[in-house]
């Protein structure tokens, strides 16, 4: 027996009106009437008495009401369980981030989402952009804030960020408005995440610049310390350089000619329901962050 038909009958009895029940359950009046007629045909006798005052159960219907209520309850329980399995109430969202400047906006979205969907687990992953792109491609991440990469996703641009150079404050070019890109070949180069597919490595390859790597590090703050000690120059995204205090010992200069990197939010091409819903919370906050 169709549990929706049982629920429709109970709603009609509760409201005392077929038209009121139709409105409550999202049917047209004729659609609700056909549903109830189908149920009566299925059981083999009339279930409702109709009058100007509304509808009332027949004696036969009263005999079935307890069973009808149980069937309707089970139908609702099954629907809730199916929704949970689809990810409306349970599941996991894996959010990746390469730019800490967006942490506050992302955390706000996570808080709002978690309040509405307490059964969904959220995992926050901090990684470089290329690593996040690989995770998206493998289905190991759902929603990522990163530099643009060649990965199949739904991409929302957030910002065009300039690539810049940290040089020691005492360097002859420190007082210039911009740093000539070819001058990178003249200083010891501090490579951040050596061997990785980074914005820095892509820039050097694109411009054909042969930087002389002298020091390596996996952290921009480590790179800043090395620059501040007068050991060389380091490329860095301006957004990543925000908040890094060189204490006057290093200078951040934009490149000449300039080079920009597109930063955005990437959602997997076939996201789970929780991931798609999370993106609806996150994107407005990220776009309004003013970063």
Detailed description of the structure:
Helix 7 links the parallel strand 8 (188-192) and strand 9. Strands 3, 4, 5, 6, 7, 10, 11 and 12 form an 8-stranded mixed beta sheet that branches. A two-stranded antiparallel sheet has the order 1-2. A two-stranded parallel ribbon has the order 8-9. The two termini are 57 Å apart. The protein is an alpha/beta fold. The mean pLDDT is 92. It has 3 domains: 3-86, Arc Repressor Mutant, subunit A, CATH 1.10.10; 94-157 and 266-288, 3-Layer(aba) Sandwich (D-Maltodextrin-Binding Protein, domain 2), CATH 3.40.190; 160-261, D-Maltodextrin-Binding Protein, domain 2. It has helices at 3-15, 18-25, 29-43, 59-86, 103-116, 129-138, 199-207, 220-228, 238-241, 273-288, and strands at 48-51, 54-57, 91-97, 120-126, 143-147, 153-168, 179-180, 188-192, 212-217, 234-237, 250-256, 260-268. Helix 5 (103-116) packs across helix 10.
